[in-house]
Amino acid sequence: MPHLIDEAEALLHARGFKVTPQRTLILQVMAGQTSYLDADEIFALAHTQDASISLATVYRTLNLFAELGLIDHRYVEPEHRREVFRMSEGPEQHYLTCVRCGKRTVIHADLLNQMANELVRRKGVSVISACACFTGYCAECTAALKRQKRG
User: Fold this and answer.
1) Residue 67 in contact with residue 29, Cβ under 8 Å?
2) What pLDDT score does 82 carry?
3) Eight-state DSSP code of residue 107
4) Could you report the per-residue pLDDT of 11-67, keeping only the tens digit for each?
5) What digits encode the pLDDT tens for the residues 58-111?
6) Domain boundaries, the chain
7) How are beta strands 134-136 and 93-98 bridged, if at all?
8) d(CA 61, CA 149)
9) Predicted TM-score of the model (pTM)
10) How far is the C-alpha of 99 from the C-alpha of 38, rounded, in Å?
11) CA distance to 24, 94, 119, per residue, from 64 (Å)
């Protein structure tokens, strides 16, 4: 993933932003991930490599990276209280967030893409982005709830 970091740093420089050690660290942390992480998770990973980094720096950096299109971000709860981020590369992903334990389960975008294509076909619109937040119970919590009902 070094090319992603190099490209991101070149874009920062081209847009007049400094390439700080903190920004590089956050790029490195994010480039090593395949799934979306929230700011606290990114902070925890970055903090293990540089104890001087602050959560506020992580939030500011994530906002800047999102504005520049370096990272994708989405919400994983209908109330939009929890935002997650990842590098802008790879297949689109959505999540079901378990309301019991908080676990996120990946939902691949093929069904959502079919819905968007059908919306374009039926209504003649152009879809630029979509927000899909699924909440419910993960497989483990669903099984536990079923056992509770039986017992």
Assistant:
1) no
2) 81
3) E
4) 999 999 999 999 999 999 999 888 889 999 999 999 999 999 999 999 999 999 999
5) 999 999 999 998 998 888 777 777 888 988 776 666 778 899 998 888 887 788
6) 1-87, 91-151
7) parallel
8) 46
9) 0.67
10) 17
11) 13, 22, 32
**107 strand-pairing partners:** 94
CB-based contacts of 78: which residues, under 8 Å, 6+ apart? 133, 135
CATH of domain 1-87: 1.10.10.10
Q: What 3-state class would DSSP assign to 18?
A: coil
Q: What is the mean pLDDT of residues 1-12?
A: 82
Task: Calculate helix-pair angle for 21-31, 55-68, nearest 10 degrees.
Answer: 70
DSSP calls for 32-101: T-SS-EEHHHHHHHHHHH-TT--HHHHHHHHHHHHHHTSEEEEESSTT---EEEEES-SS-EEEEEETTT
Six token digits for residue 3: 């090319």
**91-151: CATH number:** 3.30.1490.190
CA distances from 14 to 2, 7, 11, 69, 142 (A): 18, 10, 5, 14, 49
In the β-sheet with 93-98, what is the strand arrangement from edge to edge?
A: 104-108, 93-98, 134-136
pLDDT for 96 equals: 87
